[in-house]
Design brief:
Length: 366
């Protein structure tokens, strides 16, 4: 991590550290708490020359990390080329993936192309429950296999994250999931399920299964208190302590209360190159527009992004909120720096059978 980059962002909060680039909205999974797959259209996706243009502009803007997501980014047949094209500009490239793909060498190929980190989604330790969440069979086994492949392909000092959407379905197993992530050589990152219905997320359709009632509040508090204790004791939990506390409040119905810096520290790019300050924001321009960089540095852009923030109901997405918290609260900033300097422990799980045996040895009911 470049100290000058940190100082520049800390002083201004206007230099984008992190850019999410959804290279496709297509996804072979139809997860019950996600609606992005409904809008997948291969015709809107950019080609390599266009992606290279975006890389040039992001470099000039000052972006440090590009998170390649979707949809499911590996549903693009040219995902390796996408990584290679963006990596040539010196970005830290992360892949946000379900882990459900069927090329056993893909992890190695992506790392050779320039991939510097991965975030893989796993919500529970029960194969049947994970399959139900993802509306597909054999998902759990495929995710574990992909996590092991990335653990082997990525150097020990590169960040590997197991992303967990917290809902009523798994609130009782958060600590077990954190320990499982550690056994695989990953950080655990917890993301509260979104409780509102909007154009992207169709949560209300499955509210009965994922949502919490007042009777669940004690369990929510107990589970997040346990995660905070585990983090204090050195477990590799990526989330900041402040974020974990706010997540418990959010799931208990207390709303969102963090200082959003969308459009300043982070932003979002759609498959067709449209730019918004986050995945929920309206289009503020297109990265392929030659005038975009000029607009991005203007007072007009600042006014537009502040208007977007003011009219947003808020979220608890860690990719957005953690950066905002880190550059607003010194304790969260120190925790971010500490996490970035930690090395992953040597994985205890070497294959799928090891993963199943690890769960059995913990006495966890799948």
């Amino acid at each position: 991590m470049n100290p000058l980059w940190i100082l520049r962002s800390l002083l201004t909060s206007k230099v984008p550290i992190y850019m999410h680039y959804g290279i496709t909205h297509r996804c072979s999974l139809h997860c019950r708490m996600c609606g992005i797959w409904r809008y997948g259209d291969i015709k809107e996706e950019l080609n390599m020359d266009q992606i290279s243009q975006i890389g040039v502009r992001l470099k000039k803007i000052g972006v440090h990390v590009i998170a390649i997501g979707g949809g499911e980014p590996t549903d693009r047949a040219d995902i390796i080329e996408c990584v290679k094209v963006l990596a040539q500009y010196g970005f830290e490239i992360r892949l946000l993936t379900s882990g459900v793909f069927h090329d056993d060498d893909l992890a190695t190929k992506l790392v050779k192309a320039g991939l510097g980190g991965v975030s893989i989604s796993l919500d529970c330790l029960s194969p049947e429950k994970q399959d139900w969440i993802c509306n597909s069979k054999g998902v759990w086994e495929r995710i574990i296999t992909s996590m092991i492949q990335f653990s082997r392909a990525l150097p020990q000092n590169k960040i590997k994250i197991m992303n967990i959407v917290v809902s009523k379905l798994n609130i009782n197993e958060l600590g077990d999931l954190a320990r499982f992530a550690e056994a695989l050589g990953y950080f655990a990152s917890f993301c509260p399920v979104e409780l509102e219905d909007n154009a992207v997320n169709r949560f209300v359709e499955n509210a009965e299964d994922f949502g919490f009632s007042n009777e669940d509040h004690n369990q929510i508090i107990a589970s997040f208190t346990d995660l905070i204790r585990m983090k204090k004791n050195g477990r590799p939990i990526l989330n900041s302590t402040r974020f974990l506390r706010l997540s418990a409040d959010y799931l208990c119905g207390k709303g969102v209360s963090w200082p959003c810096k969308a459009g300043g520290l982070f932003g979002s790019i759609a498959p067709n190159g449209d730019y918004s300050i986050c995945y929920r924001g309206k289009k503020l321009g297109n990265m392929l527009d030659p005038e975009f960089q000029k607009y991005f540095g203007s007072d007009s852009f600042h006014q537009d992004r502040m208007s977007e923030i003011k009219n947003c109901s808020g979220c608890m997405r860690p990719c957005w909120s953690e950066l905002s918290l880190a550059f607003s609260h010194f304790d969260s900033f120190l925790e971010m720096i500490k996490v970035r300097t930690l090395r992953h422990a040597k994985p205890m799980i070497a294959d799928l059978n090891d993963a199943i045996q690890w769960i059995k040895n913990q006495g966890i009911d799948q």
